[in-house]
Amino acid sequence: MLRASVIVAVIVGWSTPALAAPASQPASQPTSQPASQPASQPVSKKKPASKGDVERPDPRVDSIFGGSQDTPDTKPKAKSKSKSRDDAIFGGSDSGAGTGAGTGTGTEKRLLQRVLDQGNKLQIGGLLYLRLNMSFTDGDKLEDHPISMPNLLDVFLDARPNDRVRAFVRTRLLYTPTRGQTFIPGVDNTTDLTFQLNEMWLKFDIARHLYVTVGAQRVLWGTTRLWNPVDFINLSLRPVLSPFDNRNGVPMVKLHFPLEKLGWNFYAIGLLQDVTSLKDAAAVGRAEFVFSTVELGIIGAYRRGNDPRVGIDISAGIWDFEVLGELALRFHPDSPSEDLVSVRASGALQYTIKVFDDDMLLLGVEYFYNQLGSSRIDFAAIATGQQQFFYVGKHYGAAFVSLPRPGKLDNWTFTMSGVGNFSDRSFLGRLDVSYTFLTYITVQAFAAVHFGKVGELRIGDKLLPDIVPDANGNLVPRTFTIGTQAVDLGLWLLINL
Predict the structure, then answer these.
(1) E-strand spans in 372-472?
(2) What pTM was computed for the model?
């Protein structure tokens, strides 16, 4: 989704960073496993426990926007799906994520991937993301509207010395040659050249029953597609409506114990971000259960100096509908100014319609409740990173329609979506179109329109404070004005390396 305007919307953290943040900071919000399958597939039946905690692209991104961060040529409608490299190592089940190797059929890809995996103990790959954004307001001249080009390069090393050990490193290079600030969700506005370590972990098993992963890794927990109240691990919340999740992995030690016969999974995690001694580490536990077409996750998190939290997420197939939900409770035992418990909750309903013989049209609606939210945006809190867009208000709603690879347009995906902050009555509508060619290159274009009242999703001059800091940090009367957000445009080019 798009944030636009001249001054605004960097997706920064919520007023309570994650448990992985330092104890002196407030805690952020939950996350969940990809319990829900890609929306372009039928409602899930009972799934076996995934051996070894398989690392896969987030299916929520793929099913809505098309493609993926690592395998942009994946076809959700394909009946034959190749196993990922991690599946081959740990025996995980298919998830619909292709290998991205070769241009032939699914069978050919599986055979080619098997040869590659057997012959190479080290694989090198990545992606190049070139992004051009422009934002328009109702008060500027055409030539004055900001333009930005925040480019991104990911490179990974994937080593498998034997069938029970895997090491993975992903580095990220951010390069922005422009100086305009368009503030698009999911886009890092860092200027010039910045290097980041996105992931670095080692994975092995103990007696083929307990799976251990040590290092900075990405963990995606939660069932609903836009808001994830049960994301207790990540340092920032998932960018709403962004086709690319740019968050870095979190340092941790993760233990995964699957019960394959029942399809159940149990996790114990120790978060090590900014830890100075063992007492500073955060502890997170999660249990996943499968009963018929219902998948249930229960999670708890605790860190000394932060408010403890518990959560639950569910995914259920009811007739032709998929029902998704998350509930997170945060306890404030030492805060006299707040309720003892604050609530965040999300719920979604999805329905897939078969079109063009074997294609799927996905329809979805989602609601998010944030008890600590407000009907008025605090622009200063967002600008300083204390709050994050789409998590400021108390009531949100969204609807989307997605048509991946329709008919003979096997390389196209079309998505229409809308998000509203019902607390301040500001809204955003967005159209995304993606096209994949030459197997590894995906073009993503979008247009977003801001409407409704001036508020979180339609930033205007009246939201800015009358007193602002100057270059020296002194508070002075504001002497500048900004226009009201109107339209955002973007053209992104993703090359799978």
Answers:
(1) 395-404, 412-421, 426-437, 441-452, 467-469
(2) 0.76
